[in-house]
Amino acid sequence: MSKILLYYQFRPIADPRAVMLWQRDLCESLGLTGRILVSKHGINGTVGGPMSACKRYVRKTREYFKGMEFKWSEGGAEDFPKLSVKVRDEIVAFGAPDELKVDENGVVGGGTHVKPEELHELVEKRGDDVVFFDGRNALEAQIGKFKNAVVPETNTTHDFITELESGKYDWMKDKPVVSYCTGGIRCEVLSSLMINRGFKEVYQLDGGIVRYGEKYGNKGLWEGSLYVFDRRMHMEFGEDAAQLGHCVQCDAPTNTFHNCVNEDDCRRQILLCDDCASDASTAHCGGTVCAEVAAEQA
Ligand SMILES: [Zn+2]
Ligand SMILES: [Zn+2]
């Protein structure tokens, strides 16, 4: 039986390269594949392989990364063609490697962690004053988000600092703000960047949307599908999930992203219904040039 492990930990790493080499050897010796990033602030990884190898990996890795939580998921080595273990300036690319501070307990000066049930308590107590702030790329929120969440205009995580400093979100600086993302790692950094820029009461959803969805499904404050970074592309918390996404061509409900047919020049991922996606003349993002390319290919 095969499994996937997802994990991260923020803590100072004096010699990221040594940790990278150790992790690469460890994965190779256990036959695990996947993707691991190491920086001076910590580690962020997704690895897959046989159950017994995963168990040994957890035990060995915890010898250095004490107390690290691992999330077990369905899947295996077949979900990752190879092993990639790299040293980077950041384990989540916000473009602020010198601003992030970590110690043995994690990120220094980040938002207050709230568990799903604590989030509900906060909303009960503070009502509409609570602002949900989406810590993902805007695209991901097209198919699912917390009700009434604020979705920043971000193509990549790199865009957050410009967004936060644009003045657009200054109205929420005195409000309780809950940042959330897929599994929680992006908000570890984002919430600290927000606090550094004058947001006074910042929370971060522990375990992210994944843990929230496991607890409340579609019966809570979450709406729609969750964008995921593997070949599934999206997942739902039960069959009663709301359909938030719409085809850019015909407006039909859909939660499936496709690459624009003009792949050479347009890198956009767009929502398309099955009909529009299967016809080359409509499998484009709507841009003038892309529409022309699509017409030629049809
Ligand atoms: Zn369509
Ligand atoms: Zn396009």
Detailed description of the structure:
The chain is α/β, with parallel strands linked by helices and about 300 residues long. It has helices spanning about 15-30, 50-65, 115-125, 140, 160-165, 185-195, 210-215, 275-280, 290-295, and strands spanning about 1-10, 35-40, 40-50, 70-75, 85, 100-105, 105, 110-115, 130-135, 145, 175-180, 200-205, 220-225, 225, 235, 255-260, 270. The strands form six sheets. Strands 4-1-3-2-5 form a five-stranded mixed sheet. It has a four-stranded parallel sheet with strand order 8-12-11-9. The chain has a two-stranded antiparallel sheet with strand order 6-7. The chain is globular. About 40% of the residues are buried. The mean pLDDT is about 95.
Mean pLDDT comes to 95
Structural class: alpha/beta
Helices and strands, in order, run as EHEEHEEEEEHEHEHEHEHEEEEEHH
Question: What is the CATH domain class of the largest domain?
Answer: Alpha Beta
> Mind summarizing the main beta sheet?
5 strands, mixed
**Structural domains: how many:** 3
Q: What would CATH call the architecture of the largest domain?
A: 3-Layer(aba) Sandwich
**N/C terminus separation:** 44 Å
> Looking at CATH, which topology of the largest domain would you report?
Oxidized Rhodanese, domain 1
Helical stretch tally: 9
Whole-number radius of gyration? 20 Å
For the secondary structure, the number of strands is: 17
Function: Catalyzes oxygen-dependent 5-hydroxyuridine (ho5U) modification at position 34 in tRNAs.
Enzyme class: oxidoreductase
GO molecular function, one term: oxidoreductase activity, acting on paired donors, with incorporation or reduction of molecular oxygen
Catalytic activity: uridine(34) in tRNA + AH2 + O2 = 5-hydroxyuridine(34) in tRNA + A + H2O
